[in-house]
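1st attempt posting a full record on here, be nice pls
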Amino acid sequence: MSVKLYETHSHTPLCKHAHGLPLEYAEQAYSKGLAGLIVTCHNPMPDGFSAPVRMLVEEFDQYLQIIDDARQSMQERLEVHTGLEADFYPGYESWLEQQLSSFDFAYVLGSVHPQIPEYRKRYWTGDTLDYQRTYFRLLADAAETQLFDCLSHPDLVKNETPESWNEQQILPDICRALDRIAQTGVAMEINTSGANKAIRQINPFPAMLKEMCVRDIPVVIGSDAHVPGRVADGFLEALDLAEEAGYAEITYVLHHECHLVSIRDARQVFQKASGQVFS
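the predicted structure (as tokens):
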């Protein structure tokens, strides 16, 4: 059986800060030797919640259509799946439950976005450590809802206050959150877009990734592509980081079922696509 590897985190222009239609992302995924693309644009939220960075509720049918267009165009070459990146924000759980049950999503990423105005207004106290602790607590809360297949960019908060980020200081709080997450069976993401943020480091940082491995938390690699050219960007580096942290396999999730791929086999997908020789 051939090895399958997916781009698991990609966006569309409907979120207002990404460029390129799903078909363009799918063509890039095909050129990289991937088996498929999972489109995971930011979910619509009610009451104008962070509206500048997500599709509108009335645009959801358009979202489904542009993904289906890509699926039809690529059906002989590449799998194209409909996913969603859904915000976890306390008080909106019932909205999310209804939204996620309204369509058979192949994959749902759960996200805590500490940079959006609504989050900052509610949780920012001027204490950076408290802000970080709150973020990781909410990440565990998100996992415990069982609404999500995977938690995205799991140390994103470090980019909000990079000047005061101290890995060792926050690590005990992270470990408490990881203990809770491990009990849920929810996967966590290695997000390669972190290399382009304020702290230029793939999310999560290596010590956190090691703690995830110790707790047998499955990891899914995604690029968080907002332009087609970033599809699968940094995947080889992410595979190296996972292996260094103690992982032998990575995961992809489709329709709530986890599939394991050995890191060695995953590397060979890219080596084969680039024409490299491997043993």
